[in-house]
Amino acid sequence: MTNTNQQPDNSLGDISLLYVSVLLRAVEAEGGDVHALRHRFNLSQKALASPDVRISIPRFMRLGQAAIAETGNPALGLRMGAISRPVDAGFAGLAAETADRVGHGLSLLPRFSLLTSRNSRGEPSAQPEQRSLCFYSISPYNAYNYFVVDSVLAAWTQMARQLTGHYDVLDRVWIEYPSIGLDDLFESWFRCPVEFGARENRVRFRETIWQQRPMQAHEGMHGKLLEVCEQELGRIHRGWRVADRARHLMTPLLRGTTPSLETLAERMGTTPWTLQRHLAEEGTGFRQLLDETRKALATDYLRETESSLSEIAWLLGFANPPAFHRAYQRWHGISPGEHRKLCQKRKNRKHRKGGKSGGADGTRTRDPRRDRPVF
Questions:
Q1: Which domain holds residue 288?
Q2: Domain edge (last residue) among 190, 215, 235
Q3: What contacts 129, CB < 8 A, 6 or more positions away?
Q4: Domain tally for the chain?
Q5: pTM of this prediction?
Q6: For 81-105, what is each residue's pLDDT tens digit?
Q7: Across 243-256, average pLDDT
């Protein structure tokens, strides 16, 4: 399915409106004005009803910020988790619900995460031997991105509760950002110890829960749903060149450092020489790919987020802010600070004219052929 009014892909990523619907339901449950948020962010009922429509990650973050301001609840992510359902995770959620074991079902959520979201910061992962699901780092943290970590960990927890009918499903929770003074609330919700300021974002499930058979387990339906997930993921990957896959794996490695060819090749399961050869066949090379990736990310960070220039420099792996400034000047012929001012002026003019970004409602319909990393 395509949409003639698609907005350009954002290098920072995009997310299904399935998750936007969960956020809006959480706002409604908190007594917030959902209609005002939908109007402000141009979210039509038609778009919200489609499993194929996405919005950019920056726009989702701005929506979350507005939702927290509307409800006054800094732990809105927990509310999102509490009202989430297997269907809110798309085909992967339904496949998880019908799996033969809870651990097997939960592990499908990270495995097929690309079906509903794409983020330059990384991908979630499963650690079956640890009975754990892990969410990637989105540091530096602030009051308006905590909800992302909270909602993901809470949704995984709620999934296990719905699959088993049990409320106490976890052994422990690790959260990367520091305590915000709501430790008791979090431990009461997760019903286990919660460690803030941890090295990762992770939930570990109880052994009995991990091995339990889900209440909705169904071998035949699970096989069909798993087949659909594999087909959808295959359609996405078939649209990727080697350079696209390299970009996808390179971006999470950029934080605070410059990844080497050797490191990237190892992540791709190949040798540096083979990777260079494939890139050359596609008319590029490792250094060029690194530079283009940084340029695209820098432009979107500057235009779409309020991250400071020093934070952007760190996120792109530059040794220091001056190195980032020099690179940006080379890319655009203007300093990042001046470029941000120009972008803000354009936004203000567009806002005064009542303009909308992207399609008629500011969203785009997912087309698997376009779901490769775009830079």
A1: 242-370
A2: 235
A3: none
A4: 2
A5: 0.89
A6: 999 999 999 999 999 999 999 999 9
A7: 93
